[in-house]
Amino acid sequence: MSIKPLRLEKVSRWFDAVEVLREVSLTITRGEFVAVVGPSGCGKTTLLNMLSGFDLPTSGSIERAGEVRMVYQQDGLFPWLTVAQNIALGLRQVKNASEQTQQINELVELIRLDGFENHYPHQLSGGMRQRVEMARALAGDSDILLLDEPFSAVDYLTRLRLRQELARLLDERPRTVVLVTHDIEEAAQLADRVIVLSERPARIRYELSISAPRPRDLTHPEVVSAIHRILTELGIEHDYEKTAGDNHFVAVE
Amino acid sequence: MELRRPNTTRTVLPPLAVTVGMILLWQAVSASGAFHESAFPSPLAVLRGFSEELKNGRLINDLITSLFRVSCGFVLATALGIPTGLWLGQKLAARLAFLPIINFFRNLSPLAWMPFAILWFGVGDASAIFLIFLSAVFPVILATMAAVANIPTVYFRVAQNYGINGLENLTNVTLPAILPQVITTLRVTAGLAWLVVVAAEMIAGRDGLGFAVMDSRNGLRSDLLVVQMIVIGLIGVVIDRLLVQLTRIQSVRWGYEH
Ligand SMILES: Nc1ncnc2c1ncn2[C@@H]1O[C@H](COP(=O)(O)OP(=O)(O)O)[C@@H](O)[C@H]1O
Ligand SMILES: [Mg+2]
């Protein structure tokens, strides 16, 4: 199949007199992991809302093929449902009760929360809650996963672990993924393609592919080099060019 | 949470000691002769009055009457207040239109309605139920409304993602999301209703605990007065304890943690 699960064509979005997105065009292929990075308030969530169909563009067009699920920055779990019941939301199409239970158990095992099936979200740590969110989103057979800064509310080490976890889960259950984040490291470590947005109104400022297989270490040379290139593009780091036969770097202005 | 086992030496003995101390103090004051027996009945006189009231069955009858009125008024207020609150919570325009008048009635003492209650419904069950209804319905509407209006929108978007549509939004999202706050409000309003029924029966009753209080006063039976006061207080506590059980439901605990 060659259908493009997601395709934006010159999408612009205004809120009253405020232009948030300006002519964003983007095609995402099946199974691709695209990370969109940009400063806070630039329009990342707005872009995801367009992709999910929750919001409509002021101009431009969007094509979407498949079932979309979104994972939110914080607390998208229903606090009145247990871990198992929350995950079961993702399995509503599975009518057979015993099959549903079996799939819930598989997912709970996959996120290593065995024994917490009957816990409520408020009894879990922030990292555990995000893992449940991921399990719920990956339950059943949805096609497209939209992640809105899913790890920004947890501490740094937990964030690193959750990235590994996400890479592993996607290895088991491949999906087309759009991850929105202000964390360049996160984008470089996880994505096949990183899209850098400008300040509001958001336009695509820079785009870069990373071909190293996942899961990747944060210190993998390709990840480090991608981070460097993005930071350079944003004017935060300087571009050093290795001089031939020499072991030190020289800045080029 | 689970580790904190109830400890009888800390949860039972101290309150028991305080209660016994209160009764001893009461006995001491009544034995001191500072007050006339008819103005300050002794614990023993109250105990005798209690057994007299139990034997002639009046206490039980009045208790049942009052509980019946409170239940009717409270159930009516809940049955009407929650749907109204749900509606107002979802419709900003309706909320803006109705909020001032609901706030007005919520802050108007239900007892001020007493003369009209008697004019419209006479003396008896109907006017007491009407007053209890008025005392409970506005707080229930306001609390439900606020709870609905404050449901994080992310829940509805999650619901949409997972194919929860139409009526299921009400049963699977809105109601469970507001339940903790609604339970808290029901507790508060049940207490309020119990206060109001006594006052209502004192003026507009021919039976019920409130009427019994007035009757004891008119008959100069201060011993029975104390019996009735104790029963009214205890039943208020029992009602609250019963409603507290609702907060133990696992799926509402999240609303009371942190
Ligand atoms: N519903 C809305 N109405 C008005 N302005 C909005 C709305 N949603 C977002 N905005 C504005 O759009 C800009 C981008 O918001 P958002 O997409 O949430 O940014 P990000 O997710 O990148 O932090 C912000 O300035 C915000 O105030
Ligand atoms: Mg955002």
Radius of gyration of chain A: 19 Å
Number of domains of chain B: 1
Q: Count the helices of chain A. How many?
A: 7
Q: What does the overall shape of chain B look like?
A: globular
Structural class of chain B: mainly alpha
Strand order of the largest sheet of chain A: 5-6-7-3-8-9
Residue-averaged pLDDT of chain A: 88
Radius of gyration of chain B: 23 Å
Task: Describe the structure in your own words.
The complex is a heterodimer of chains A (253) and B (258). Chain A is α/β, with parallel strands linked by helices and 253 residues long. Chain A has one domain: Rossmann fold (3-Layer(aba) Sandwich). Chain A has seven helices and eleven strands. Chain A has helices at residues 44-52, 83-89, 97-110, 126-138, 156-172, 184-190, 221-233; strands spanning 6-15, 18-28, 33-37, 59-64, 68-71, 144-148, 176-181, 193-197, 204-209, 240-242, 249-251. The radius of gyration of chain A is 19 Å and the shape is globular. The termini of chain A are far apart. Residues 242-253 of chain A have low confidence and may be disordered. By secondary structure, chain B is mostly helical. Chain B has a single domain, classed as Orthogonal Bundle (MetI-like fold). Helices cover 77% and strands 0% of the residues of chain B. Chain B contains eleven helices and no strands. Chain B has helices at 8-11, 13-32, 43-55, 58-90, 92-107, 114-121, 125-149, 153-161, 167-204, 209-218, 222-244. In chain B, helix 5 (92-107) packs across helix 7 and helix 7 (125-149) runs antiparallel to helix 9 (167-204). At the A-B interface, strand 5 of A face helix 8 and helix 9 of B. Magnesium ion binds next to helix 1 of chain A. Magnesium ion (MG) binds next to helix 1 of chain A.
